[in-house]
Design goal:
CATH architecture: 3-Layer(aba) Sandwich
Order of helices and strands: HEHHHHHEHHHEHHEHH
Strand content: 5-15%
Radius of gyration: 19 Å
Bound molecules: 2-acetamido-2-deoxy-beta-D-glucopyranose
CATH topology: Rossmann fold
Helix content: 40-55%
Largest sheet: 4 strands, parallel
Distance between the termini: 38 Å
Mean pLDDT: 93
Structural class: mainly alpha
Number of strands: 4
Number of domains: 1
Amino acid sequence: MDSMRAAFITFLHVAILSSLACAKGNNRTSPRPPAIVVFGDSIVDPGNNNAILTTVKCNFPPYGKDFVHQQATGRFSNGKIPSDLMASVLGIKEYVPAYLGTKLSAQELITGVSFASGGCGFDPLTADLVSAISMEDQLNLFKEYKEKVKAIVGEEKAAEITNNAVYLVATGTDDLANTYFTTPFRRLEFDLPSYINFTVKSASSFVQKLYHLGARKISVVSAPPIGCLPSQRTLAGGIERICNPTYNQAAVAFNSRLSNEMQKLNNTLPRARILYVDLYTPLLDIILHPLKYGFVESKRGCCGSGTFEVTLTCNSLTTLVCEDASKYVFWDSYHPTERAYRILISNVVQRYGAFIN
Ligand SMILES: *[C@@H]1O[C@H](CO)[C@@H](O)[C@H](O)[C@H]1NC(C)=O
Ligand SMILES: *[C@@H]1O[C@H](CO)[C@@H](O)[C@H](O)[C@H]1NC(C)=O
Ligand SMILES: *[C@@H]1O[C@H](CO)[C@@H](O)[C@H](O)[C@H]1NC(C)=O
């Protein structure tokens, strides 16, 4: 019964996604965006961290267990990640490649890449703590990327691509979960409300710089319910591993400030279409009501015990892996499974579809 229900729900989401992809591909009111360009952390890093010296890596099994050829590409999940799913829904391509680490074809470059790096945040200290690529450095890579696109298609067409591309910005989780709550550095300096203001200011400055480099359609995603991530339940949820309410409230406060700031930028920057995308609400609903979505487990990840394993500790030498990751909301103790991401993206398309393309 449950598995039939799960299969049906999966079918429903696939059907919604593919009909949207189809509608967008064939009968669009606005032209298909030429490219998708992605900035952020492990939620949207397709393997940039493979190319740098950091411990935040996952280019080994069981990561990629359900990816094409079971390939561990450096995506922090069992399969596709949100940037891939967005690119697909927008009719651009099936996968958004990492900018670093491999030689990309001209076609791959002009249809968009990801600069995201697992472990980074809007707070520059967050990337520093784990030697990830900071958001500022991701912008520097974007400048270099723009030159490459210009060399391929010429100045005029390159500017057109830059102006009409869809930009996805997804980070902030690690600022709160790692930098603020888990290490002492920022807590010595800021109380929580001041840290949230500091981080949102940094997010705003990032978006403004991106705008001044030619981006117009920028989607900025919210923080998730941080207190309900399996690792945070283990660290801060007590013996029962409950969702930590303080962490969730911090995410809500951060999101509220971020949303206001993005709305303000949308109103002030000429021709900008800056969109705050709420992932908190749909993800919390999935976590609290997993059965409704055909999941059987939302408190632990599929990898290992599911309570602490992530990146280096989720590997095939030391950990068992659940058989069917599609029954789990979380793949490891920090990152959702492809199936959870698909449900989130279909929710995003339903709520914001008209704004994104
Ligand atoms: C798609 O576009 C065609 C031609 O512009 C139009 O006749 C048709 O009604 C459209 N279909 C939908 C589903 O909007
Ligand atoms: C945070 O920023 C808001 C809006 O600018 C302001 O009203 C509030 O006082 C600030 N809070 C702190 C703790 O700095
Ligand atoms: C952003 O501003 C544009 C007008 O420049 C408006 O059409 C759009 O609805 C705004 N987006 C949001 C999310 O408010």
